[in-house]
Fold this sequence. Notes:
Helix content: 40-55%
Strand order of the largest sheet: 3-2-1-6-5-4
CATH superfamily of the largest domain: GAF domain
Largest sheet: 6 strands, antiparallel
Structural class: alpha+beta
CATH topology of the largest domain: Beta-Lactamase
Distance between the termini: 48 Å
Order of helices and strands: HHEEEHEHEEHH
CATH class of the largest domain: Alpha Beta
Number of helices: 6
Amino acid sequence: xxxxxxxxxxxxxxxxxxxxxxxxxxxxxxxxxxxxxxxxxxxxxxxxxxxxxxxxxxxxxxxxxxxxxxxxxxxxxxxxxxxxxxxxxxxxxxxxxxxxxxxxxxxxxxxxxxxxxxxxxxxxxxxxxxxxxxxxxxxxxxxxxxxxxxxxxxxxxxxxxxxxxxxxxxxxxxxxxxxxxxxxxxxxxxxxxxxxxxxxxx
Length: 202
């Protein structure tokens, strides 16, 4: 069972990496959704969280000043591992999270609700989640609204995929390579690394 789980996780990560959205710039299409979520649910924090191998990285982050955390501290990874929504009314009373540093320290998470978001091939990329510093209960109507937001995130993933993938071959098109090159240059400049590129004309 453990081997199957590892194999499943490797497939999920391969799908996530192939989308090329990790460590990209914030985009209004996702930031709009987290802003709406904070107003809709009256919470201070909303995230579109992507679960990498050892970290969770925020494609959109409203209410936090950080862009990522260790996966070991992530609530969202539980939703990804279970392939289902995760609702935590009071993290300080939940044995899974009460010793979590994000519960015991800033931002002092109490309430958490996360809904998995899937990539076009069906693999789970992460979640859209809402967080409060006070315990609360998620109503059924609220849950359905969160599910609607998750489906909008998935729609955006499909749009990105269609814009960067050749429909006949299923491989990255010129636009995708250009975006990946721009992003690699941006990250190399930020980290002061040297980026080598081999351009071959035909």
